[in-house]
Amino acid sequence: MSDSVPDIVIGRLPLYLRALARLEQDGVPITSSHELGAQLGISSAQIRKDLSHFGEFGKQGTGYQVPYLREQLARILCVDRDWTVAVIGAGHLGRALAGYKGFGPRGFHVDVIFDNDPDIIGTQIGGLVVKPGESMVEELRARRIEIAMIAVPAAAAQSVTDRVVAGGVRAILNYAPIRLVVPDYVHVQDIDPVIHLQHMTYYLRT
Amino acid sequence: MSDSVPDIVIGRLPLYLRALARLEQDGVPITSSHELGAQLGISSAQIRKDLSHFGEFGKQGTGYQVPYLREQLARILCVDRDWTVAVIGAGHLGRALAGYKGFGPRGFHVDVIFDNDPDIIGTQIGGLVVKPGESMVEELRARRIEIAMIAVPAAAAQSVTDRVVAGGVRAILNYAPIRLVVPDYVHVQDIDPVIHLQHMTYYLRT
DNA sequence: TAGATTGTTAATCGATTAACAATC
DNA sequence: TAGATTGTTAATCGATTAACAATC
Q1: Which chain B residue has its CA at the smallest distance from A125's CA?
Q2: What is the pLDDT of chain A when averaged over all its residues?
Q3: Among residues B180, B176, B182, B181, which one has the least CA distance to residue B195?
Q4: A183 and chain B: CB distance < 8 Å anywhere?
Q5: Whole-prediction pTM value?
Q6: DSSP letter, residue B64
Q7: Where are the domains of chain B?
Q8: Which chain A residues contact residue B168 at CB under 8 A?
Q9: By the 8 A CB rule, do B160 and B88 touch?
Q10: Which of A48, A51, B122, B187 could disulfide-link A200, Cβ–Cβ 3.0 to 4.6 Å?
Q11: For B83-195, which CATH superfamily applies?
Q12: Residue A102 has pLDDT above 50, yes or no
């Protein structure tokens, strides 16, 4: 039932959760692996297989209770609680992240934002006062923050990373276009829009 | 040598390209599949296998000429030219995208930005005047834009998608947290930070 | 030459899919 | 009951890795 679930399976669970949240919002009480699969472009067999790593959540002949399965997935992903996150870098991107409306409803709250620019430190962004980079380690520790979003230029990203790790962060969403070096226990996910664009331009040759 | 290269291989090429651009900037003239692999956390065998889909780019005993391999990958990915892109939505995120310094050096140029809010239409963002959504189809056609970045709320994303497709767009970078429905010939890549965060929170249970 | 690294083949590994008994 | 859908096993498919001849 669970001796280390493949990471590729874990990576699909948030997609299932997102689809279920939407179904629940639409007032759909019950769904099936076929319906979910059609919505996500994934085979029904794969959805059932993925879920089977964690237990049995459906009923033969009927399908899945939407709220129940959503709850269970949230529990499995550890998002049946709220998380506070830090934003590092208060440029365009950092500001967009600090002001993004999509985090709160899904359980993530930007609690603090840092920058090094004296002209930016002390200014307000979406209700938060920008703090100086020097205070990062102590602030992160004091707030027990475990998740950071890094939105600084590539040249600064590794040194910033070292400091958020020193501050106790164990998960990093990295927007800088470089590969970060971190201890084994720290998780990193990268978002580089150019990587995605270049993936698509391959197919744009006519 | 090439009867339809797996998409998973195509997805890695931009990472190779990024690493090579960095090596070139650092003045490194020659590299090897081992060095590249170490830098990317990928096996050297995989890099050689991936490249072999497109031809022979190295020399036994020596490795790869960095500038040459970079050029070849750029050509394969069709980024040996510049691309103009449109940003749809001039909220926090749209503004961050329009102002992002990381696009230009890698061959992508935001040429136009749209919004529906009368208070925002006509204002300037990074040298661009925000255009009204109604003009989207004709503007995209007039500019022959083939790539759009969608940065509107989930509720508006599908209708906006229908219009960029009507405007001739063939590749969409979608920041809205929903699955877009598009014709077969249109490519979509999704960026939803919450999906990445939830992927990591799974591992944050202690 | 001796050492290194490519490109490629074959072996391995793991993920996806098909199929179906169980059962609601 | 008849129809539907789950959870799971076995088969298939595809991707990764190991190994090595070729050769710089």
Answers
A1: B92
A2: 97
A3: B176
A4: no
A5: 0.96
A6: E
A7: 7-76, 83-195
A8: none
A9: yes
A10: B187
A11: NAD(P)-binding Rossmann-like Domain (3.40.50.720)
A12: yes
Chain-chain contact of A96 with B95 (C-beta, under 8 angstroms): yes
Taking the Cβ of residue B16 and every Cβ of chain A, the question of whether any pair is shorter than 8 Å is answered with no
What residues of A are in contact with residue B205 (Cβ under 8 Å)? 78
Of the options 3.40.50.150, 1.10.10.10, 2.40.10.340, 3.40.50.2000, the CATH number for the domain spanning A7-76: 1.10.10.10
Q: Is B29 exposed, middle or buried (0-12, 13-18, 19+ CB in 10 A)?
A: exposed
> What is the mean pLDDT of the segment spanning B5-10?
98
Q: Do A15 and B196 touch (CB under 8 A)?
A: no
Q: Is a pLDDT exceeding 90 seen at residue A123?
A: yes
pLDDT digits (tens, 9 = 90+) for B68-92: 999 999 999 999 999 999 999 999 9
Residue B1 pLDDT: 43
Three-point CA angle B114, A177, B188, nearest 5°: 45
Question: In the prediction, which pLDDT does A1 show?
Answer: 43
- CB atoms closer than 10 angstroms to residue A70: 20
Nearest one of A198, A2, A104 to B103, comparing CA atoms: A198
Of B91, B97, B110, B12, nearest to B53 by C-alpha is B12
Which whole number is the average pLDDT over A68-79?
98
In this complex, which of B22, B189, B200 lies closest to A200 when CB atoms are compared?
B189
Tell me, rounded to whole angstroms, the distance of Cα B38 from its chain centroid. Answer: 24
Question: Stated in angstroms, how far is B44 CA from D17 C1'?
Answer: 10
For chain B, percent of residues with pLDDT exceeding 90: 98
Given an 8 Å threshold on Cβ–Cβ distance, is A204 in contact with B17? Answer: no
Structure tokens at B135: 């003009």
Mention every residue, 6+ apart, whose C-beta is less than 8 A from residue B75: none
